[in-house]
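Collaborator request log, item 7. Partner lab (contact: R.S.) asked for a structural prediction of Structural maintenance of chromosomes protein 5 to inform their binding assays.
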Amino acid sequence: MPPSRRRSRSVVDGDGGADGSVRKRQRRRETEIKPDSDDGEDEFHSFAQDGDERAGSSQRASAIVAAAQNDYQPGAILRVTVDNFVTYEHAEFYPGPNLNMVIGPNGTGKSSLVCAICLGLGYNTNVLGRATSYAEFVKHGKDRATIEVELQKRPDDRRNPIIKLRINREDNTRQFRLNDQQCALKDIQKLMSKFRIQIDNLCQFLPQDKVAEFAGLSPIELLGKTLQAAAPEIMMRQQEQLRGMYSKQKEYQRQGQDETERLRIMATKQQGLQPDVERLRERGEIEKSIKTWERALILCSYQEARHRHTEAKNKKKEAEGKLKRFQQGAGPAMQAVNAKEEYARAVQACIPPLKRKVADGQRTARQLTDKISNLDEQLKDVNNQRSALRNGIQRKKADVGVHKAKIGELQREMNKKVPTFDAADWNTRIREKEHQWRERDGESRRLEVEAGEVWAAGREKSRMKTVVQGQIQALDTREGQELNRLEQQFPDVAAGYKWLTEHKNEFQKEVFAPPALSCAIKDQAYSDLVQSLLQNDDYLCFVTQCKEDHTKLSDQFYRTMGLSVSIRTCSSPLDSFRSPMSSNDIRRLGLDGFAIDYVDGPEPVLAMLCADKGLHKFGVGRRDITEQQYDQLIQTESIGSFAAGGVSYRTTRRAEYGPQAVSTTTSQIRQGMFWTNQPVDSVEQQRLKAEYSEIITELKALGEQKSRLDSQKTAAEESKRMLDDEMKTLRDAKSAQQSEFNKWKAIPKQIEDEQAKEAQKRRELADVLGKIDGLSDQLDEVAVKLAEAVLELRNHVTQMEEAYNEVLQAQLRALEAESDAAALRDKNREVHQLLEEGKRVIAELSAQQQQVKEEAQGLQREVADALQGQGDEERAQLEELYHGKTAEDVSNELEAQRSRLEYVHAANPEVLHEYDRRAKEMGKLQERMAQREGQTVQLAGEIGRVRGEWEPRLDELIGRINEAFSYNFEQISCAGEVSVHKDEDDFDRWAIEIRVKFRPGEALQILDQHRQSGGERSVSTIFYLMSLQSMAQAPFRVVDEINQGMDPRNERMVHERMVDIACDEHSSQYFLITPKLLTGLRYHPRMKVLCIASGPHVPAGNRKVDFGSFVKIKRRLLAAAS
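Returned to partner:
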């Protein structure tokens, strides 16, 4: 498209009002459009910008919208300008303050306006559910795209905020400007937050590709989205407060339960340890008493030891005085004895040094003897080494001769005829054989590959043979005929059925094949009548019995296998679907029964057909009905549809118009596609038999080809074996000749090696002769040392003899002195005995005193240790404890306490530590529990206060939504309600529940992705969004092609309700994107229609599209026709 042939936008404002009466609207729809006067010509304006005028477009655009800004809410969109964006080179949009209908054929770029609003206000592409890259929104062939969005300012702002986005294709980046100043994305996001614009909230911004996602919102998510869109900001803050406080309350409760249980367990453990603790404490008291008595015993023993030491000291002094007085009286008689004894002691003292001198001489003699023995051994070793070397001289001379003889032999071999060896000739002959072998090997491998391919082809043909044989047999059964039809007409359903038959045991409950395969008609006369109620999806849907199986099957079919099939879930039993009247009553009305009576199949499948299509309420009869029977059936509200003879009747009742507002649609019953007993398809059977014969022929040919290839491969392998033998013979011959040639070539080197060995042996022989000479010198040196040692030993023995004689002389003099002293002692024996007795008594008393002293000193140290750390009061108690008692008395008391201790059985000492530690821990835990209980009470009060403010507001908000939602449904003779599910146990599970009913006699059902059809979900979604319009907190809302899937009646009613609500005086801005329009739709002066004109017939150049002239032409045509 040339640059001048751009798409442009223009705005159409209607010139007429509308009566609010439903009756008047209905009558107006039933009449043709009448030509009006031309006085509305000035109401049609074109705001598309020319290419030459773009330089100042922003300033002029702001001037254009300035006059009408008073009707716009702050944050509403005044203008959207795009350049090189998606399908547009340049376009400008000027929406109105209320309802904006954007209309145009499919593909003209209506949704591009939605994309521009989303991206221009700083939101991500994932909100749109379309492209994921920003660069994908740049027009094909362009480097960059720009979006400019002007919003209505707030009363305190100086100017309207203008946001400009630039997208670069090359690096997939975007740049923002706010009021001609470059800014970051977070600045745009802050601005959106101030205006409460929530593009990512499906309740405010519902693009075309997100309609199904809105219907799939969980009730919990829907509550959050609704509050964001319709609740004041304080409610959002309070909801977050409540969510946080309830979360904290649950955490407190969980902690309280955990701590209570922990305290109970700890108390149980403490109770179990109580007997052991009491025994341990009793043992502790006894042990403490034992330690006290032990200290008392030490003090008492110390006092007694001091007393015994004083007595021993006094006795010793008394004995020493007596001995001294006796010695003074017997002094002269004892002096001679003492002198002789003194002499004997002096002589006796000379003997030990002389004995030591003799012992030293003996030790020196032993050392000299050992030295002589060592030298003698050394002499023998040297002599043996010399003898060994002399014996080796002859052997080395013989080795020299051997090497000399070998050198001569090698020289004779060298002089013989030189052997020949041509390596190149041998290699050529061997390579020829190897080349032949590789050729045979390649041929063998090729034949093996071909044989493998033939075998694989044969296996595939065998499989096809089994499949075709099964198909031929299946043609004889109804299920087989139906499956054959599915494979031809609905291959995705057939593929899903085959997968299900192989994996049917992988689900929680049984999953059923589509009704086309799993159900059948009991009486073929009713087949067409029953099938007139059903559509293709009803025959071809798979049926699950629980949500988990539905999710698993959806994941397999849609994500893994990429199939386009339908899956339905029905958890209600068949018994819950009862026909509205008995068989006799239905027969009196001219029908034979209800459709459910003539269909056979699994109960869950039949229950699904009852739930979704009302099979249990659809009356059927083979005969035509009379006028009277027709009137009776029409007046019976429990029967909405029925089929009789060859006609299907569908009744619609409009309760708002009274009981007589009943319309009936009739259609001729066509022959059903399924559940028919048709003869075997002979053409298909002949085709399958021909295919089977062809497969048999191909299998035979493949078998012959495989045998031929196997024979050729065997011949090739035999040729390879023969070539292997020939190559081995050639290699062995080459190896033998090459070995002989290499031996001759190695002779010079061998001669050289032998000559080197001969020279080495001669050098070794010279070394041995030198070593023999050295050993001879060493032998002489050792002999000299041995002679010197023998002479030294002889001299030392002489000295030892002299010292031994001196010892004998001293011993004789000592014996003589002792004899003289003994004689003198005999003369004074009685005096001596008395002196000795006195000395003995003094010695005994001294030993006794010393023993008592040492005992007292030991006890003194024990007393110091026992009294360490004891105060004066404890010491006084100890003294009082043993006062008047002997150590034996105290010891008896100590043993009594120890006996008590033995009777108290000992427990694990760690039990007491654990008991005390746990008691402290229990105390701290009880303190924490008390503190948390106080926090819980305080938190409950805070929750009650905030919830007391928030919940009434929520109830009021949902009540208003429910009132509007219910009213909207009443206008189309249906029912709907919105309520809040309040889970008192979990605030996070509070949710909005939407329940709708589209058929008379049906109960309200929760709106979800599975219960309602696509058109019903669209109606419910738009009615819910419309219910939020009067409470919308956002300045504008967008709905893109929500009418997809609606029937004309519902679409017309939805449009009327939308016009009424969106054009209210205080309503926010609303965008409705739609590709189609019905005739005679309601118009309101507050709404604005934005028409998109694009394509090859758009005027070229700078000419503007004048929709006003188009309306004039249309009016003239209508006037002429009338």
